C-alpha cells in the first residue's frame, strides 16, 4: 500500500504537469530578473534535505521527485540548494523541475570546498577553483539553472570582512569561465548575512569596480520580520531605502523568522507589493524540511522515507502565497542603474580593491576546462596553514565529460517523449540545518502560476511525456500488486 500511495502521488503530479511549461533561461536586466520580456520574481524555498552542512545531494536522488508535487502545491517557482555532488548525474531531477516550471539557484560550495573565512587566501587555491568550475559545467547545461551563489555568509562579522576580497575573486573567475565555456550566460551572485555593521559595505563592494569583477545579483539572508510584524517594525522599510539605488537584482535568499510558533508568513504580502517590488525581486523561505533548528514546513522521518508530512507552516505559507499573487507587471524596476562606489577601507571594513589574480596552477582550468568532476570524495581545499600542509592538486584540465548529463530543453526545442519519472521514489534526505545565526528578519516568495516562467514556456511534447509516464507507472503498479 505504501508503494501505491507513492505511485498515486507521482501520477497526480504528472497529471497536473501535463500542461506545465519547460523553463526558459532567466536573465538580468537592470535591478530585476526577466524571462523573455516578462519580469521574474523569485518565489521559492531553501531546499536541502539532509542539512546544508552535510554532503548529501537532493538533486541526484529520487527524493527530489517525491518533493516536486509539494512544491507545486505551494506554487513556487524557485528552489535554492546549498550542497550537491558534482560527480553525480542530475538530469532526472533537473528536467522534472523544469517541466514543473521551477528554477534552481545553486551554491557552488560544499562543506569541503569553500572560501574559509579564517584563511581566505589559503583556501582560494586550484583545488577549490577546479571544484567550482566543474560544478558550473554540470549545471550550466540546464535551462532552469537561474544562477550560482559564489559564496554564502563568508563575511559574517566585523572581523571577517577581509575574506570578501576572495569572494570577489571567485565571482570574477566564475564569470570568466562561464563566458568561455558555457553556451549561455548564467548570473553569478552572493548570499549575504544580515549583519548590521557591514550589510551595505558587502553589497556595495560586490557591485563596484570593473564589470568583470562585479556580482550580478545579491541575496540577503534576513530574519527580521517575525510574526505579525510590519514594514516599520521589521526594518524592511529601511532596507528598501538602503537598496533603492542598487543596480542589480536583490532578493531574500533566506527568510522566515521562527520565533513565533506556526509562522503566519504575512511578510509575503509586503514582499510582493509595490512597497518593495521596485527594489526587491522576491525571496526564498527557509526551509523545506524540518530539522533541529525548527524552520521546516514538512516532516520527513527517516533518510529513506517515501512519505512527507506537511506541517502547519506548510499550510500557512500556501495560504499566504494564494492570497498574494506574483505581480503581473514589471514592478517599477530600474533598467539603467549605476554600479556602486567601493566602500572605503576602515577598521571594520578590510576588503581590498585590488583583487588577487587566479593562482597560476588554476589558470589551466580556465583555459582548457575543469575536466572530470571529483565529487564530494575529492581532496578538500581547506587546511590550517600553521598545522597542515597545503593539499596537492592532481587534477587534469580539459573539457567536461560527456557522460555527466545532457542539456535539458531550451526555449526552441521540446524534450524527447518519456516521463521525467521512471521509478516511483527511493531514498530521501532529512531536513537542513540553518547556516545563519542572525536574528534579523526576512521575507517570502508567493505563488507561481502568474510568473513569467510558465507564461513564456512552450508546451509541445508534454502530452507524450504524460502518456509515457502513465505506461511506466502502470507497469510499476502491476508489479507491486503481483
Integer tally of domains: 1
Distance between the termini: 12 Å
Shape: globular
CATH class: Alpha Beta
Q: State the CATH topology.
A: TIM Barrel
What is the tally of helical segments? 14
Give the strand order of the largest sheet, numbering strands 1, 2, ... along the chain: 4-5-6-7-8-9-10-11
Helix percentage range: 25-40%
The name of the CATH architecture is Alpha-Beta Barrel
* Class per helix and strand makeup: alpha/beta
**How would you sum up the major sheet?**
8 strands, parallel, barrel
The portion of residues forming beta strands comes to 5-15%
Q: CATH superfamily assignment?
A: Glycosidases
Give the uncertain stretches in residue-range form: 1-21, 409-482
Question: Whole-number average pLDDT?
Answer: 83
How many β-strand stretches? 13
Short account of what is shown:
The chain is α/β, with parallel strands linked by helices. It has one domain (2-481): TIM Barrel (Alpha-Beta Barrel), CATH 3.20.20. The protein contains 14 helices and 13 strands.
Amino acid at each position: 500500500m505504501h508503494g501505491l500511495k507513492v505511485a498515486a502521488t507521482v501520477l497526480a503530479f504528472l497529471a497536473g504537469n501535463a500542461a506545465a511549461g519547460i523553463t526558459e533561461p532567466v536573465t538580468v536586466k537592470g535591478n530585476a530578473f526577466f524571462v523573455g520580456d516578462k519580469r521574474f520574481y523569485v518565489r521559492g524555498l531553501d531546499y536541502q534535505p539532509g542539512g546544508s552542512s552535510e554532503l548529501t545531494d537532493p538533486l541526484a536522488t529520487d527524493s527530489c521527485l517525491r518533493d516536486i508535487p509539494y512544491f507545486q502545491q505551494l506554487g513556487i517557482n524557485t528552489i535554492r540548494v546549498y550542497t550537491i555532488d558534482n560527480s553525480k548525474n542530475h538530469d532526472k531531477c533537473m528536467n522534472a523541475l523544469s517541466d514543473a516550471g521551477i528554477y534552481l539557484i545553486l551554491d557552488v560550495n560544499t562543506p569541503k570546498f569553500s572560501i574559509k573565512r579564517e584563511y581566505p587566501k589559503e583556501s582560494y587555491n586550484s583545488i577549490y577553483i577546479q571544484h567550482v568550475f566543474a560544478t558550473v559545467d554540470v549545471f550550466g547545461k540546464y535551462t532552469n539553472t537561474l544562477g550560482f551563489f559564489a559564496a554564502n555568509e563568508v563575511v559574517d562579522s566585523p572581523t571577517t570582512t577581509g575574506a570578501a576580497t576572495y569572494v570577489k575573486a571567485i565571482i570574477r573567475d566564475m564569470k570568466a569561465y562561464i563566458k568561455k565555456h558555457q553556451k549561455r550566460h548564467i548570473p553569478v551572485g552572493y548570499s549575504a548575512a544580515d549583519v548590521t555593521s557591514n550589510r551595505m559595505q558587502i553589497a556595495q563592494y560586490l557591485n563596484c569596480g570593473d564589470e568583470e569583477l562585479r556580482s550580478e545579483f545579491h541575496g540577503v539572508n534576513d530574519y527580521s520580520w517575525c510574526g505579525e510584524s510590519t514594514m516599520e517594525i521589521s526594518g524592511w522599510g529601511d532596507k528598501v531605502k538602503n537598496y533603492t539605488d542598487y543596480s542589480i537584482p536583490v532578493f531574500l535568499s533566506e527568510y522566515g523568522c521562527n520565533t513565533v510558533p506556526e509562522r503566519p508568513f504575512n511578510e509575503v504580502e509586503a514582499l510582493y507589493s509595490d512597497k518593495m517590488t521596485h527594489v526587491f525581486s522576491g525571496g526564498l523561505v527557509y526551509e523545506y524540511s524540518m530539522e533541529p533548528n525548527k524552520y521546516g514546513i514538512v516532516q520527513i522521518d527517516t533518510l529513506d522515507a517515501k512519505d512527507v508530512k506537511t506541517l502547519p507552516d506548510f499550510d500557512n505559507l500556501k495560504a499566504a502565497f494564494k492570497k498574494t499573487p506574483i505581480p503581473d507587471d514589471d514592478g517599477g524596476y530600474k533598467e539603467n542603474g549605476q554600479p556602486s562606489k567601493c566602500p572605503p577601507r576602515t577598521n571594520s571594513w578590510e576588503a581590498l580593491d585590488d583583487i588577487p589574480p587566479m593562482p597560476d596552477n588554476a589558470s589551466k582550468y580556465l583555459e582548457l576546462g575543469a575536466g572530470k568532476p571529483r565529487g564530494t570524495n575529492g581532496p578538500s581545499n581547506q587546511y590550517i596553514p600553521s598545522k597542515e600542509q597545503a593539499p596537492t592538486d592532481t587534477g587534469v584540465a580539459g573539457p567536461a565529460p560527456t557522460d555527466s548529463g545532457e542539456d535539458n530543453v531550451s526555449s526552441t526545442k521540446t524534450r524527447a517523449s518519456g516521463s521525467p519519472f521512471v521509478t516511483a521514489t527511493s531514498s530521501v534526505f532529512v531536513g537542513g540545518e540553518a547556516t545563519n545565526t542572525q536574528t534579523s528578519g526576512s521575507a517570502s516568495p508567493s505563488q507561481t502560476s502568474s510568473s513569467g516562467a510558465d507564461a513564456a514556456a512552450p508546451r509541445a511534447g508534454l502530452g507524450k511525456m504524460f502518456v509515457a509516464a502513465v505506461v511506466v507507472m502502470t507497469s510499476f503498479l502491476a508489479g507491486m500488486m503481483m
